[in-house]
Write a structure and sequence with these properties.
elongated; about 70% helix; mainly alpha; about 180 residues; 6 helices
């Protein structure tokens, strides 16, 4: 009546089980993050804002080598590069497509985390690391958008980046679900 399953089949079933639960956790977390108000900076209260901020600030230092404009832009680049490298390393080096989908999820969350600062640039209200807001606080996106002549479009850009982040988080979760499902094939 009962077929004996091989050790390999049991391991695959266990991995699939844990990946499925992990994916459910990331899906719930992703939905919770997407529901935070990017217009008011509520996203900055999330746990992941802190670790992403470390990579943001490191990006300023690393990209300083390329001039003032790139030093400012480097914060955002550093914040985006870290999860992209994680995703690529898991996919290329380890061949771990499920792990790479979680790296892609983190990239999407990082894009979500940028949206409030873009949105805030035209009418700054967010308190920055030095405790100030706006020009006095060294707001990256005021400087960057003003230098491009796009400061008046900051709220539209912030909204678009937020929407992009939502799409990226959702696509990463769909990728992860596909990878969990592949284990049954």
């Amino acid at each position: 009546m009962f077929e004996a399953r091989s050790t390999n089949e049991r391991i695959v079933a266990l991995v699939q089980h844990w990946q499925a639960w992990l994916l459910v956790g990331f899906a719930c977390w992703g939905v919770a993050l997407m529901r935070l108000n990017y217009r008011t900076g509520e996203l900055a209260t999330s746990f992941l804002h802190g670790p992403l901020l470390v990579f943001h600030e490191a990006g300023h230092v690393i990209f300083r080598l390329f001039g003032d404009w790139m030093a400012v832009m480097g914060g955002t680049l550093g914040q985006l590069i870290m999860p992209a490298v994680l995703c690529a390393a898991l996919l290329i080096k380890n061949g771990d497509r499920f792990g790479a989908s979680i790296g892609a999820w983190l990239f999407g969350v990082s894009v979500l985390d940028i949206a409030p600062y873009l949105y805030d640039a035209a009418a700054p209200q967010l308190t920055l690391l030095n405790g100030e807001s706006g020009e006095a606080g060294g707001h990256d996106w005021i400087y960057l958008l003003d230098s491009l002549g796009w400061l008046g479009h900051s709220q539209a850009l912030g909204t678009a980046v937020y929407a992009l982040g939502c799409v990226l988080v959702s696509a990463a979760l769909a990728w992860g679900a596909r990878e969990v499902w592949r284990l049954t094939e």
